Amino acid sequence: MSLRLRVALASIFVGIAVLGLKYLAYRWTGSVALYSDALESIVNVASAVAAFLAVWFAAKPADSNHPYGHHKAEYMAAVLVGVLIVLAALSIAHEAWKNYIDPQPVEFTPEGLGVNALATVLNGIWATVLVRIGRSHRSLALVADGKHLYTDVFSSLGVLAGVILVMLTGIRELDSLLAGLVALNILWSGWSLMKESLGGLMDEAVAPALQDRIREVISGSADGAIEAHDLRTRSAGHVIFVDFHLVVPADMTVERAHDICDRIEAAISKDVPGARTTIHVEPEHKAKHTGIVVI
Description:
- The chain has helices spanning 3-29, 32-58, 73-101, 110-136, 140-169, 173-201, 208-221, 254-271, and strands at 227-236, 239-248, 276-283, 292-293.
- Strands 3-2-1-4 form a four-stranded mixed β-sheet, with helices on one face.
- By secondary structure, it is an alpha+beta fold.
- The protein has eight helices and four strands; from the N terminus they run αααααααββαββ.
- The chain has two domains: 3-201, Cation efflux protein transmembrane domain (Alpha-lytic protease prodomain-like, Up-down Bundle), CATH 1.20.1510.10; 208-293, Cation efflux protein, cytoplasmic domain (Alpha-Beta Plaits, 2-Layer Sandwich).
- 68% of the residues lie in helices and 10% in strands.
- The chain starts with a helix and ends with a strand.
């Protein structure tokens, strides 16, 4: 089992543990704000399951039906997580409005607040693990899960601060207002996640800094060629696809041109692990004089 898959599996168990702690905090206090915090943890578990399935499916090798692999499964999972986040936000907003119209008594116990704080710390630690491993292995599903947990952490901190404020002021309506603010924050998180994931499904180019780096690698490893142009890139999970046209002298042999392509592909793979490079070789009269200059 790969590291990405092990981390995704562990995230499910962490999510279940946090959900249990937060629900216990809600039961001990009756706070709708803490209820909203616990309800979001249900989405955390669902997103962890979706991330695990996506990472597992994305790791499957290419086949006749999917010659480019199954990497985009991670984007599909991230979109699903975004939808779940939005639905959770709407549910929280509905509960907050009901409680604002008819405020219910709240019992703020040190035990309840302490358990919720413990769950928040656990979420914060695990979110850091997910984002770091997700970025190092270019797994959007893990990064999305980690960013979602970070949102949960900030929401929980706001809820805890607000609950303490209610204790100090005695204004019970603040509990519902805080839950409403949590819902808005979660709604924004869900929209941002879906937007990023849809960009991957629409084959957005990689970040400009990475494109510039790929250009430098091509320029520095294409000795013998004339130029490279029409560079295109896209991401699919942890894989980055690169393709471009390479212009070579008209009298160059096929074998020599092939050697140059192999050298470029090896250089890109070394600098951008997991990159899949496709090169279209062209004779020198196809040069555009606007592409990548060979050093």
